[in-house]
């Protein structure tokens, strides 16, 4: 079943700015779906229309087969949203923030309390349940937003930059939690500027630019489109200038470090073989940039 179906979605603001220019998008139930794009590409506008915060100019949106124009209250119960900006009262206690959200969806007090405890425990916030939100760290506030978005057990969870400003260790912990939700069958839509995050988490990825979807495919298929890949090589000995050869470009970064860019047709072994012929010994190798980031830049610059 399709968790989300968007057909020919347009948004034109009074100023004449076209935020969306015919968006078509399907998200299957159970997908961990990444929606990527530069600032101003249309990600936030799309999410705003799905959640009724923004009025569309034309087009159709269905959530699990429910047209949001015909029965938004029914569709709303199926959606959990974690916005990028904090939108709770910092003076309220953590438990109250989550249980009050459950009340908006008609959950009884007992069920609200049970669900709140479930997600606050999973997200490491149960010990802070009686703490005012203003006393939480930035990472804890992010986790509180996720707990609040999940308290009514939505079938579709929309995350808008959920780990922005979160340190690396905490971000990894949140990844584990989101992957667990996905394995349990929850449909998740993620927008993020951490492209490594999308590569680690998402099964399918769509890229939006200038209000249009320019790619929508499986992550593996998308990454196969990379024509070039760049590595940084740490060498055991000093390196003089290395001439580039067909499909392989070399750039000297310092006395013992080389940057190597190869085409998809060239194997990594061919790099090692060539450098070995020049008596250059490689100690370590790493990707210069995230593969998805390279592809993203290629696509948006077309």
UniProtKB/TrEMBL annotation:
**Superkingdom of the source?**
Bacteria
- Coiled-coil ranges from the UniProt annotation: none
Keyword Transport in annotation: yes
| The protein, known as | ABC-2 type transport system ATP-binding protein
> In its keyword annotation, does this UniProt entry include Phosphoprotein?
no
**One term of GO molecular function:** ATP binding
Entry keywords, A to Z: ATP-binding, Nucleotide-binding, Transport
TM ranges: none
**Record-annotated ABC transporter domain positions:** 4-235
Where does the signal sequence lie?
none
Family matches, as InterPro entries? AAA+_ATPase, ABC_transporter-like_ATP-bd, ABC_transporter-like_CS, ABC_transporter_ATP-binding, P-loop_NTPase
Recorded hits in Gene3D superfamilies, A to Z, give: P-loop containing nucleotide triphosphate hydrolases
């Amino acid at each position: 079943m399709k968790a989300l179906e968007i057909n020919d979605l347009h948004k034109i603001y009074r100023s004449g700015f076209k935020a969306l220019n015919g968006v078509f998008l399907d998200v299957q139930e159970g997908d961990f779906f990444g929606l990527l794009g530069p600032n101003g590409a249309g990600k936030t506008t799309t999410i705003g229309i799905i959640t009724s915060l923004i009025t569309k100019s034309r087009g159709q949106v269905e959530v699990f087969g429910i047209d949001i124009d015909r029965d938004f209250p029914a569709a709303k119960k199926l959606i959990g949203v974690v916005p990028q900006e904090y939108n709770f009262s910092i003076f309220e206690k953590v438990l109250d923030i989550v249980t009050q959200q459950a009340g908006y969806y008609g959950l009884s007090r007992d069920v609200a309390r049970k669900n709140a405890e479930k997600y606050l425990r999973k997200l490491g916030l149960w010990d802070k349940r009686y703490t005012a939100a203003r006393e939480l760290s930035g990472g804890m506030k992010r986790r509180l937003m996720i707990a609040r978005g999940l308290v009514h057990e939505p079938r579709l969870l929309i995350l808008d930059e959920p780990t922005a400003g979160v340190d690396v260790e905490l971000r990894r912990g949140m990844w584990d939690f989101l992957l667990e939700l996905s394995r349990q069958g929850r449909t998740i839509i993620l927008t993020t500027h951490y492209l490594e995050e999308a590569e680690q988490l998402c099964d399918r990825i769509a890229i939006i630019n200038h209000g249009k979807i320019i790619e929508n495919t499986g992550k593996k298929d998308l990454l196969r489109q990379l024509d070039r890949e760049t590595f940084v090589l740490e060498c055991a000995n000093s390196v003089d200038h290395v001439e580039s050869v067909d499909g392989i470009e070399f750039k000297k970064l310092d006395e013992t470090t080389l940057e190597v860019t190869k085409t998809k047709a060239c194997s990594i072994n061919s790099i090692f073989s060539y450098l070995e012929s020049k008596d250059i010994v490689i100690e370590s190798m790493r990707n210069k940039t995230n593969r998805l980031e390279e592809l993203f830049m290629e696509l948006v610059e077309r």
